[in-house]
Please model this.
Amino acid sequence: MAKRTIVSMPGDGIGRVVLEETIRVLNVAGFDAEYEEGDIGWEFWCKEGNPLPQRTIDLIEKHKIALFGAITSKPKDAAFEELAPELKEKGLVYSSPIVGLRQHFGLDICLRPCKSYIGNPLNFIRRGQGDSIEEPKVDVAIFRQNTEGLYGGVEWSNPPKQVYDALMTHKKFRDNFAWCSVEELSVSTRIFTKKYTERILRAAFDHAVKYGYKSVTVCEKPNVIRETSGMMYKMAQEMQKKDFPQIELWNTNIDAQMMWLTKNPETYGVIVAGNMFGDIVSDGFAGLIGGLGFACSAQFNPDSGIAVFEPTHGSAPKYADYPVSIVNPIAMIESACMMLDYINEFEIAKKIRKAVAEVIAEGKVRTYDMAKMTGRADVVEKGAASTSQMADAIIAKL
Ligand code: NAI
Ligand code: MG
Model:
């Protein structure tokens, strides 16, 4: 088979380190690929006024599959301050290259699996009967609609007249908000389309079938947010009945789900939600399996096949300049395993996950987060593994 080309986008800060270590692991595991580096992040905003240059978009368009580390973003004023002097007159406005990628390629499906590793000292534990300590095995796959909803960006402060007039046609608005002057009004919309709601639901059900989960839970708030959450749940009911009768369909409210999270996390299988609730519930579950050092994700477009795999964490600038990197590379390595699954390299993915599981179960090599230390430059002297020592340990198991 022809050698694959993967677009590698290290980005900023610790994104650069974790991606480099991950590629080292992929190579040793026998994944035969070439990597073409795509420019993305703060450096390119400062130098070129664009954190997501067109050449990077072209690269992804060409090769379809990308591994992404993390980027730094800063508030509008700070972003302007750091622009190269010759670019300051150009009226450039910073916008997140991650959102840019999602929008440009229509990466509407976001998958964030949260699966606990046996022996991870960061696993959630709870008190059971007779004060016993229980460590529930968490294995959920969260599907988050990635392009619509509250993060769709359709919002106003001091909305224009047509928008205000349209709002006034709604009885609830007239009854409850007409007292507020338009200048003091801010509105963010929560848009769900049938097309993309159908796609995220189908992706969730398909995943349940493919990986043997018995249930799909719609985690929204249909009793209150009747139109959008209500539409998603209704469509899920129809889809389950028609196409997935073998999968159970459950329905939870996001608020209650966050409460149940610690009560019975092992009960859930696939969870599907809109953009904002998907973001919330996936962070909640990630906390049960070790937090940012373990939280991996994929974003993809089922039509074009374009997919970007990345850890959930950011660039952690405070650790970026340590002479020896201390952060946990497992979230990035797990994201790479998701990539391998996506391109049907199941055996290599399995091999890497097994190696990671062995290192964690053995408990000899632990990054500072696993060792429950405060992140500082001296943690390695104090016995925590560095980023590359963790990668070395995984490689040794391979
Ligand atoms: P962050 O995820 O970079 O770091 C938060 C804290 O989590 C760190 O200080 C560290 O204690 C811990 N942490 C993160 N990754 C870790 C790892 N691999 N191993 C061990 N500990 C880890 O989020 P923060 O500090 O809010 O944002 C820093 C920058 O990253 C900002 O500029 C932000 O905009 C950006 N960001 C980028 C994201 C992305 O590229 N996908 C996502 C989140 C934030
Ligand atoms: Mg989040």
Observations:
- Residues 279, 283 surround magnesium ion (ligand 2) (CB under 6 Å).
- The mean pLDDT is 96.
- DSSP finds 15 helices and 14 strands in the chain.
- The chain has three domains: 1-107+300-398, 124-150+191-288, 155-188.
